[in-house]
Amino acid sequence: MPMVYRRMIVAGGVSLILGALSFVLVFAYLAARFDYPHILDGDAATVLPRLLKGGATMRAVWALYALLPLFLLPGAVGAYLACPSSRDRMKLALVFASIGTLAMCLGLMRWPSIHWVLAEAYAASSAQSPGSLDAVFAGLNVYLGNYVGEFLGETCLAVFFFLAGWSILEETAFPRWVGWSGMLFAVLFVVGAFRNVIALVQPVADLNNSLLPLWMIVLGGSLIWHTRTPARI
User: Fold this and answer.
1) What is the mean pLDDT of residues 124-142?
2) Where are the domains positioned within the chain?
3) What is the DSSP string of the chain?
């Protein structure tokens, strides 16, 4: 394997691990200071004042959170380079990873941008006037949050994880359990993406919040270890 590929594969693995650890830290902060993700079910009167109360720190954390999905892109490139036996399949996987990453970024970016402006407007509005702000807040949550960030983003990433797992099964440099684990997690990720349509799958979505960083660490570690083993190119 050319050294340039080894370095890019390792960089992809490191990116996935850093992204996973960053996700856990930011998620823990928001859970402690913002009652996330349970607060997502709240209305504007509950959520917006609490968002504004967090001040510049809360806004900065949300801005950072919105960028974390970008760690997936170098990881996807690393997975592509590590699976030379499945070039066409992994090209498709890269497309889905890119769409999913963009969708998740757009969904999360509403918090430090549009929602922040709504929170300021809500604080300045009179008791009789915030009705329109409630509607805007709810509409943005449904469109950017539920359908773009969660449904589209998670579904596309699930396809990437499935295709990557499938491709890993065809590479002798990887343990087969890594490929099967990726495909199984992808199925769970798709099921969880339907939580806004079928309430029964909410427990699966909650489980995925823990499994996503774990799988990113497993995949990232596998990519790094992969460079220690001769592989076809």
Assistant:
1) 80
2) 3-226
3) --HHHHHHHHHHHHHHHHHHHHHHHHHHHHHHHH-TTGGGGS-HHHHHHHHHHTHHHHHHHHHHHHHGGGGHHHHHHHHHHH-GGGHHHHHHHHHHHHHHHHHHHHHHHTTTTHHHHHHHHHHHS-TTSTHHHHHHHHHHIIIIIIIIIIIIHHHHHHHHHHHHHHHHTT-TTS-HHHHHHHHHHHHHHHHHHTTTT-GGGHHHHHHHHHHHHHHHHHHHHHHHHHTTS----
Q: Considering only CA atoms, give the Rg of the chain.
A: 19
Question: Is the model's pTM score more than 0.85?
Answer: yes
Q: pLDDT digits over 98-120, tens only?
A: 999 999 999 999 999 999 999 99
Label residues 181-198 b or e (16+ Cβ within 10 Å = b).
bbbebbebbbbbbbbeee
Give 177-203 pLDDT, tens digit per residue: 999 999 999 999 999 999 988 889 999
The size of the chain, in residues, is 233
